[in-house]
Amino acid sequence: MSSQLCRLCGEPLKHTFIDLGISPMANSYVKTERQMEYMYPLRTFVCEHCFLVQTEDYETPDHIFTEYAYFSSFSDSWLQHCRTYVNAMMERFGLSTESQVIEIASNDGYLLQYFVEKNVPVLGVEPAANVAQTAIDKGVPTVVDFFGTRLAESLVQQGKRADLLLGNNVLAHVPQLNDFVAGMKMILKPDGIITMEFPHLMKLMENNQFDTIYHEHFSYLSLTTVCKLFEKHEMVIFDVEQLATHGGSLRIYVTHADRRDVQLSHRVSELLDQESQYGLTELSTYERFHHQVVKLKRQLLSFLIEQKNKGKKIVGYGAPAKGNTLINYCGIDRDYIDYTVDRNTYKQGHYLPGSRIPIYDPEHLKQTKPDFLFILPWNIKEEIIEQTQFIREWGGRWILAVPELMVME
């Protein structure tokens, strides 16, 4: 039994979801081959009461997020997703120059920049100073801090309350879930709306997305669990959308529970029913996940060994956190993958944590002409294949490992 308590309901955690062995922090890129780095157990548990899946705690958010290597703006498809979101929210909720939009974990201003273009007042909240500075340079006002009740109270005292409060892929990064949501309630205007996007636990399990588990992701969320979380703080999820982003995400729409002018969408009850039918309220469903992951690991390693024994050159594309989980869990190093490439200049010239696989600019591919390009950020595989069509000139092929091993020509 774990000594940890559930972050949502406070009950002791007794059941393992999956144990991925020992791993470094997935976004802690190494500057030199001889640099020392810390390794931590990467084990997750499921709560038998609210079915929240969460990691064991080893590092604080201050250590993980104060300087961060992830810049959202390096993905063209993600930027298009955000532009579409902004247009939809403007139309659905009638946002104007009189509105206040606040984004939690606003990163490099990737999304708020589109509200700025429409002259809607915005405020970003971003704990990573290096990333926040990029947003500020774009003209996106940003507070460098962690969000919670302390910051929410301070912002309210300054007259900052949100008509639209949003957070994309942040809820999973929060260890103090109840303080975080309590802060959201404080800063939301009486008639305000919250939208949040997060990877859907059901899709993670359906599609073997074990590589999305890493220390920076403290929680793994279903609609069933998130409904309980917001209900605890007197808020209600009145609508939900299923998105293709990050291998299958949810966008929830939330408001204060005492509002009488908001209609509950049928999509909420329908998705709750789907989760129940899938088995997300039964512990046996969670216990089966481990076997799927082990099978995939063995298939991937067998393929890589076979190709390397034939003298084939295999390199990676991308240096995402999910790729580091997969590589370290499977025991992959430079014996299997010569190097990887990434458009993020912040990562180039560094090494992947744990495996010490070097990271180069994508132009390096044209110099070495690899036989296989292993796509690590599979969630943007279409974008990557489009950008690397040139590998066909020498007969190069693409590899995907999630949801299953696949080779594409």
TrEMBL record:
SUPFAM superfamilies: S-adenosyl-L-methionine-dependent methyltransferases. It comes from Paenibacillus sediminis. This is 2-polyprenyl-3-methyl-5-hydroxy-6-metoxy-1, 4-benzoquinol methylase. Transmembrane segments: none annotated. Residues 6-65 form the Methyltransferase putative zinc binding domain. The lineage of its organism: Bacteria, Bacillati, Bacillota, Bacilli, Bacillales. Pfam families: Methyltransf_13, Methyltransf_14, Methyltransf_23. Residues 245-403 form the C-methyltransferase domain. GO terms for biological process: methylation. InterPro entries: Methyltransf_Zn-bd_dom_put, Methyltransf_Zn-bd_dom_put_sf, MeTrfase_14, SAM-dependent_MTases_sf. GO terms for molecular function: methyltransferase activity. The keyword Methyltransferase applies. Keywords: Methyltransferase, Transferase.
